[in-house]
Amino acid sequence: MSAPRSELVRTLVDRGYLHQATDLEGLDALAAKGPVTGYIGFDATADSLHVGSLVQIMMLRRLQQCGHRAIALMGGGTTKIGDPSGKDEQRRLLDDDTIAANIRGIGAVFERFLSFKDRSGEDRSAAPPAMMVNNADWLDGLGYIRLLREVGPHFTVNRMLTFDSVRLRLDREQPLTFLEFNYMILQAYDFLQLAREYDCRLQLGGSDQWGNIVNGIELARRVDGRELFGFTTPLITTASGAKMGKTAAGAIWLSPHRLSAWDYWQFWRNTEDADVGRFLRLFTDLPLAEVARLEGLAGAEINEAKKVLATAATALLHGREAAERAEATARETFEQGGTAASLPTVDLPRAELEPGIPAFRLLARAGLVASNGEGRRLIQGGGGRLNDERIDDAERPIGLGDVPESGTLKLSAGKKRHILVRPV
Known about the structure:
Radius of gyration: 24 Å
Distance between the termini: 63 Å
Strand content: 5-15%
Oligomer: single chain
């Protein structure tokens, strides 16, 4: 297409979000006329999203920054089924209470990136306030016969079998339940419902959601004669081909109770050289001219660009103060010969350490890893250290007898991630 007329499409294209669009010129013309409402759906399979979902969150942020309305759709209904896209087996089914708790946790993350109305009902930004909507509000009360009559005639099994989420599972001779087979119908119905209730014209998502997005567009056209639009991002991988957000230590979570600001900063600081410019465009608000300058740095200077990336990305999620504190701690520890006293510290009751805690469990308890399983894998891979000595046995009990004269235990995950544990 020619140069975009709208700030929205220009921003999404220039910052590297575009993979596919159903009608980019049509979307550009619509966005140039005035505010457009767009949404992305997030199923509540955990109480936090991880950094693999960050590109979607940032797209909602771009939508709002360009003066449009962003809807974060919580999948309170669809989580009860589970999206088969990209999955080799059925997701574990969650109960209503767990889903509700997960939605609360995820909602807290969105409040860091989007501007909602405050408790007094006042809009906190110049753009239309963002919204969080739960598809359980309409899916839970949807009668099966009504759904079959309203939506069923517009889907053919022949075409549904061609979608990647179905075809790949069948090609591998892995079971696909009838429950999961219905997921694409419900997601299409979500788009129709949002279009009817909020005049939502745009669905955004990852490239794996292309088929589901197109289904919703076609359903709305056939049922209501509405013109809707779809936009997907490329699969975000690192320069070495690794999936974004997956590390040896586990997922990079977005909720502070899952991962500290320090560890989050370290994740971005360890970005591969070839990814710095791309990640600055996708995951920070830095102007593109400044991004171009930073990605042009060569040799050891690229490390300065990585620090800018780490601090800017961490500031969006954890706040500017926490980001700068993490940067200062890294500088004192790794560049200025800082002592262990400059490292982050967590307090642990002496009663827990008195009988001794297995090493893998203490790593998780201290927040260096997200789970006991990740702690075991870290130690087995040679990356777990206690007071700068390698931990050879994941079951090794660590107790008060291991506390040195400094009064704190130093735990390490690899060479760059450290934390102090202080018995209290």
